[in-house]
Amino acid sequence: MADVLTAAGIDRNRLLVEPYSRNTAENGSMVTRLLGAGATSTPMLLVTSAFHMPRSMGVFCAAGWTDITPYPVDHRTGAFSARSGWAFAANLEDLNVGVKEWVGLLAYRLTGRTHALLQPSCLHGAG
Questions:
Q1: pTM for the whole thing?
Q2: Contact of 97 with 104, CB cutoff 8 Å
Q3: What range defines the domain where residue 10 resides?
Q4: For 23-51, what is each residue's pLDDT tens digit?
Q5: Backbone phi, then psi, for 73, in 5-degree steps?
Q6: Would you say residue 98 lies in a domain?
Q7: CB atoms within 10 A of CB 65
Q8: How many domains does the chain have?
Q9: Residue 117 domain flag
């Protein structure tokens, strides 16, 4: 992502890169540490795949962030007729992605890495 942003004209010195996390939970805590005290009340734009946004939001809210605006990307859409029917093998990848995210959401909730399954309260402008 840093390469994309610098190619778009953003000075690399303005970027903070967190390259060590192995999963979403580690990323939330490492970004919080990278930015330092008081960062959690700073407005933040959270960019990730649309299917992964609920878990990512939950992790950052649990890490103490209070003003997050979600910016989902990588929407996986298409014509309904192209994704319906009994073509199980053709839709196996979509099923795999969906099941992984739902299991991840449940596991993160049960282990305290998030406090909500779908819509955390730290959304921009929420309560």
A1: 0.72
A2: no
A3: 2-110
A4: 989 998 898 888 876 677 778 888 888 88
A5: -130, 180
A6: yes
A7: 23
A8: 1
A9: no
pLDDT, greater one: 12 or 85? 12
Q: What does DSSP assign to residue 46?
A: E
In a domain, 48, yes or no: yes
Cα(51)–Cα(72) distance, integer angstroms: 8
For residues 9 and 3, is the Cβ–Cβ distance under 8 A? no
d(CA 62, CA 120): 9
Contact by Cβ (8 Å): 101, 18: no
Residue listed under structure tokens 């298409």: 78
DSSP state of 123: B
Residues whose CB falls within 8 Å of the CB of residue 92, separated by 6 or more in sequence, listed in order: none
Nearest CA among 78, 71, 108, 72 for reference residue 93: 78
The verdict on residue 124 lying in a domain is no
